[in-house]
Write the structure tokens for this entry.
Amino acid sequence: MPERKSKRKRNALKALLFGGLSVALYAAVFANSSVVLAYTTRGAWFAALPITTAFVFSFVHGAFANYLWAALGIEPSKKPVETRVEEKRPEPRKRPRPRLHLNA
Amino acid sequence: MQEVVQQAGQFIDLNLTAVLFLFIVGFIGGLVSGFIGSGGAFVLTPGMMSLGVPATVAVASNMCHKFPKAMVGAYKRWRYGQVDLKLGLVMAASAILGVLVGIKIQEAILAAWGQAGSNLYVSVAFVVVLVVVGGYVFYDAWKISRYGGEMPVNENSLARRLQRINLPPMLNFKTAGIRISMWFTIPVGFATGMLAATIAVGGFIGVPGMIYFVGASGLVSSATELVIAFIMGFGGSIKWAINGMVDIRLTLLILAGSLLGVQLGAIGTTYVKDHMIKVVMGAIMLIVAVSRGLAIPQYLKELGLISLDQGAIATLMTASFITMCIGLAVGAIIILGSMWQARRREKYALKESYGQV
């Protein structure tokens, strides 16, 4: 139990760290939205800007979301996930190997 | 094209209502996507348009939020052992072909019958596909529910029969536990791409296709769909960004909610039984079909095929949008409800095993 609590605490700290980073990134974009919009909508090679921005935000904000749910105790189930619909087929019966008999 | 966009002043001023709307719909859409592999886009695009965002910017900004969301969702579900990467890549390759053909058909319809004709085609495709496929998915889910969520494998199902046909090249999909000819996966991927180009939600055909045609489980199909969504969304976003159509502010606001939602949805899949994917997908598809059905009279009027007063059209369009939001909300409620119930059951079982109950 104490181990679980300390794990939650660690997750909460990480959520705070990435949450702070995420807020800073959002504040940076929205405080300078006219400049950001002017560059990200230039098209051609500037297309890399919105794509990269989306990637960067997905890493930082995605990490925040991950640690937030973990800190709140919402974690995946411990039971193994059944991903196959196929049932185990019965083992084929072992048949005796064909042998050559010589009736001489 | 970019000059045209800027001249028309197409990048809206954001207010609190718009920010909240994008965050909340982003969260619910993300939750549904994380669970069934797609969803949210069908509400976000019309929702953004109702905020005053032009259609092209709405589609572009929505697309640009889709690929990072799908990437995070796919990664999460890959860690849970649900993603069949090979199946996703094979499907995505054929889906790209489907997108190209779908765009050509759209262009031909636009040239022949104009915008109203194109809208009518999209709505009719929405209704037909969603009623037929969604109806079957829901019926199947209902049938499985009657067996308590686990039904014996039907050896005569379409997927099983296709798997038995030895038509080289045969592909082995390890996570899905399937061996099937490449020639049977291509049509599913192609149809996914066609539908994505037509109604922007390819997953409505991709996931049922992988379940009933290829033979993967609901969990693997919905998780693998996220890989397809990432690849297609990434390609589409580059195309829109080159044209300067992405309003990154809208993209980031949707992402703020959807990255939270998609991870919660992915966690939810580890608690529920396989048929719950079908329940949620079928329910959403049928409700969205009703919503698109309500929008058809407007396009019929624009084409001069029926006469209806403007007040009635406006009411129908509002009802259509509200129904769409209800569809998404119903999906989210089923996901959260079943997840909560399963978590409670698991905790109870754990306590019981420790002899605390």
